[in-house]
């Protein structure tokens, strides 16, 4: 019994300094609720998103908090399952009474989570769902800080025009993001007079591209563009090389992931990746973000982290501007607010909440690093297109 | 249509499939074990190869020697610790056990190598100009090795003393015991040999494909299709089936797209199961 009392007294002593450190007159923290995947197939990428959000919490508290109140995160694990995500946001809203909501990581969970927030008339920042369908449901309380799917490929048009590329083959893993991207590419092709000769989808698990290579050797498309997983990008360039084939421009979102350069080595050179965030970006606050992130976690932030950080930056700005946590007032602020984040300029369509400010990037692998080649105002190197033939490297 | 080019591509792809199927076939032929962990041993082989070549900066041929030995040891451990104890039980027991071992191997690999993708830049990366075509060097090598290994195993089983012992264990275990053959020893060696072949396949896949702990799931299923079509336990059958499936996949993909191309493999497998369940040249499954 005595021992127990000692422990209690000790705990009280430990707690005391923490209490006195809190900003004056602000005992009650602002609670920010997020459910994100800490297990399941999205756990790896969501971990980076979470790290960025936790970094922001520490930074905002070091700055004296938000509205003079400390910020506290309420985190749950949605197990990479959209139905679980919906249930957890129900709980965050009705049970935990959180003050602010940030979306989960990934379009699938964000689609269900945003529906719950809208039902409760609660503002939510969509910082993890790129799918444009999330914002085609007449929701009034959801504001996207993440880049929408169409931003991923918007650089293709200008780059193709600049280098006189006229034909394009879409050869992609069959999953929803790729189908969304085809819609965006079709629009670009129409506007820029590019001919899409083929849109082919292969099933998950495909590792051999012999039949596409045989076709491409005959039809010689200027652009070979693909959306999918990094292993597919690695296997495509290795098989290009092994078959002594190369399109003028090879674009794959997987080419902007670190694994691509490591696994494909010299064969990765001159491949182009779609990207939304790079640590070298000269966007507002990015240098400071990269430094703080490196100091805390010992590695550079990737685009998952960039998405997370941009989301909470927008949220913080909106709360400061509004001066309260009133959901209606916050909604009004967010529908017209423009600001700058590590991703770029944040601006939403006031009607749908769809992000319209953030620009997609194109990066090209040069000397084992990603160089930004689009947009012009952010570029760190001039594009080399057509990619030099294997024999001339 | 570039018929000749597609044919070569299909045959080379078939060579890869034959290589993957080889060890699986041996283990089934002798032990009647359907080894679900085969693809994961292959993944361990590929990832170890990457570590040896890009991590330790040793030449590729070191991996060709070391990796099969390593996976053989792993296979032997699986056999001695788990599968041997289930040898007399119904087939479903060993099937479930290899499924469990597969899950364990995948997760151990994630712990060791992480969840990302790795590769072997610079090893057998280029092409050779043969018969007017640019042929992938890595695939040509894999194809030749697959041929050699298949022939070697076949010769070993047909013509060596130990090979005959292995066959007698699979065909008439009681008689084998009477003749003084240690069934346990034969089974241990067979499983280790099968695992070594998975490792070798992993070494040769590493230059062509991206390697990750879940590689087995992408390729294992194709190896199963090969031995089902070829006939479980038959080496010439597996070789023929592998080449057939490779060629069908590439031509199917060219004509109808890769969705149909990949489906071809399984369509043929279904037809074989319905029409000729023992496979093209197989011995069939005995209860």
Question: Which CATH first-tier class of chain B would you pick?
Answer: Mainly Alpha
Greatest contact pair?
A-B, 40 and 42 residues
Ends distance of chain A: 78 Å
Mean pLDDT of chain B: 88
Quaternary state of this entry equals heterodimer
Task: Count up the helices of chain B.
Answer: 11
Largest sheet properties of chain B:
2 strands, antiparallel
Largest sheet of chain A: 5 strands, parallel
Protein name (chain A): Branched-chain amino acid transport system substrate-binding protein
Family (chain A): Belongs to the leucine-binding protein family.
Organism (chain A): Azospirillum rugosum
InterPro entries (chain A): BCAA_transport, Leu-bd, Peripla_BP_I
Description:
The complex is a heterodimer of chains A (393) and B (287). Helices cover 42% and strands 17% of the residues of chain A. Chain A is built from 13 helices and 14 strands. With 287 residues, chain B is mostly helical. Chain B has a single domain (3-114, 131-275), classed as ABC transporter involved in vitamin B12 uptake, BtuC (Orthogonal Bundle). Helices cover 74% and strands 3% of the residues of chain B. Chain B is built from eleven helices and two strands; from the N terminus they run ααααββααααααα. In chain B, helix 9 packs across helix 10. Chain B starts with a helix and ends in a 12-residue tail after the last helix. The chains are: A alpha/beta (393), B mainly alpha (287). Chain B: The chain crosses the membrane at residues 6-28, 35-54, 60-83, 95-116, 136-157, 223-248, 254-275. Chain B: It holds the Pfam family BPD_transp_2. Chain B: It is found in: Cell membrane. Chain B: Keywords: Amino-acid transport, Cell membrane, Membrane, Transmembrane, Transmembrane helix, Transport.
Report a brief summary of the structure:
The complex is a heterodimer of chains A (393) and B (287). Chain A has 393 residues and is an alpha/beta fold. Chain A has helices at 2-21, 43-62, 82-94, 107-119, 149-153, 156-162, 176-192, 210-219, 230-242, 258-264, 286-297, 303-322, 327-336; strands at 30-36, 71-77, 100-102, 124-126, 142-144, 167-173, 195-202, 223-226, 249-252, 272-275, 339-341, 344-346, 361-366, 369-374.
């Amino acid at each position: 019994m005595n021992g127990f009392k000692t422990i209690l007294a000790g705990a009280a002593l430990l707690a005391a300094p923490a209490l006195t450190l809190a900003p004056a007159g602000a005992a009650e923290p602002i609670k920010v609720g997020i459910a994100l995947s800490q297990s399941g197939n999205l756990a790896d990428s969501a971990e980076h998103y979470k790290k960025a959000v936790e970094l922001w919490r520490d930074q905002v508290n070091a700055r004296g908090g938000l509205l003079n109140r400390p910020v506290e995160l309420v985190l749950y694990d949605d197990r990479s399952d959209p139905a679980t995500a919906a249930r957890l946001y129900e709980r965050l809203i009705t049970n935990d009474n959180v003050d602010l909501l940030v979306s989960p990581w990934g379009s699938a969970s964000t689609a269900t989570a945003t529906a719950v927030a809208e039902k409760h008339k609660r503002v939510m920042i969509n910082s993890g769902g790129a799918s444009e369908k999330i914002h085609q449901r007449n929701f009034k309380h959801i504001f996207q800080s993440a880049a929408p799917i169409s931003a991923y490929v918007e650089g293709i048009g200008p780059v193709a025009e600049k280098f006189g590329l006229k034909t394009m083959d879409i050869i992609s893993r069959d999953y929803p993001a790729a189908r969304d991207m085809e819609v965006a590419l079709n629009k670009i092709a129409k506007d820029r007079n590019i001919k899409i000769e083929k849109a082919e989808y292969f099933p998950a698990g495909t590792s051999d591209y012999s039949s596409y290579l045989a076709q491409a050797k005959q039809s010689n498309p200027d652009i070979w563009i693909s959306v999918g997983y990094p292993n597919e990008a690695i296997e495509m360039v290795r098989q290009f090389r092994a078959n002594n084939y190369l399109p003028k421009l090879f674009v794959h979102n997987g080419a902007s992931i670190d694994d691509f350069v490591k696994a494909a080595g010299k064969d990765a050179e001159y491949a182009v990746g779609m990207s939304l965030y790079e640590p070298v970006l000269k966007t507002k606050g990015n240098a400071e973000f990269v430094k703080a992130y490196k100091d805390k976690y010992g590695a550079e932030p990737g685009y998952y982290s960039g998405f997370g950080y941009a989301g909470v930056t927008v949220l913080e700005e909106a709360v400061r501007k509004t001066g309260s946590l009133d959901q209606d007032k916050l909604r009004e602020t967010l529908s017209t607010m423009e600001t700058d984040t590590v991703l770029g300029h944040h601006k939403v369509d006031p009607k749908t909440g769809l992000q319209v400010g953030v620009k997609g990037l194109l990066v090209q692998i040069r000397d084992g690093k990603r160089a930004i080649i689009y947009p012009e105002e952010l570029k760190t190197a001039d594009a080399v297109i057509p990619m030099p033939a294997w024999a001339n490297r | 249509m570039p018929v000749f080019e597609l044919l070569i591509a299909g045959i080379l792809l078939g060579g890869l499939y034959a290589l993957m199927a080889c060890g699986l076939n041996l283990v089934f032929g002798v032990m009647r074990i359907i080894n679900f962990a085969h693809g994961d041993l292959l993944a361990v082989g590929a990832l170890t190869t990457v570590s040896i070549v890009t991590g330790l900066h040793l030449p590729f041929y070191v991996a060709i020697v070391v990796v099969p030995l390593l996976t053989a040891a792993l296979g032997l451990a699986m056999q001695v610790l788990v599968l041997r104890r289930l040898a007399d039980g119904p087939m479903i027991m060993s099937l479930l056990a290899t499924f469990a071992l597969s899950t364990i191997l995948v997760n151990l690999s994630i712990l060791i190598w992480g969840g990302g993708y790795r590769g072997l830049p610079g090893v057998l990366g280029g092409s050779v100009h043969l018969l007017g075509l640019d042929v992938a060097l890595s695939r040509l090598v894999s194809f030749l090795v697959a041929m050699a290994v298949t022939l070697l195993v076949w010769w070993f089983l047909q013509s060596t003393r130990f090979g005959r012992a292995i066959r007698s264990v699979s065909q008439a275990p009681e008689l084998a015991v009477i003749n003084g053959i240690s069934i346990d020893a034969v089974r241990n060696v067979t499983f280790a040999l099968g695992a070594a072949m998975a490792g070798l396949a992993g070494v040769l896949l590493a230059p062509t494909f991206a390697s990750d702990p879940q590689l087995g799931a992408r390729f294992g299923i194709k190896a199963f299709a090969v031995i089902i079509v070829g006939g479980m336990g038959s080496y010439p059958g597996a070789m023929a089936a592998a080449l057939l499936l490779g060629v069908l996949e590439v031509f199917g993909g060219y004509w109808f797209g890769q969705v149909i191309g990949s489906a071809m493999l399984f369509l043929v497998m279904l037809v074989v199961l319905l029409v000729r369940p023992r496979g093209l040249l197989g011995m069939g499954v005995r209860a």
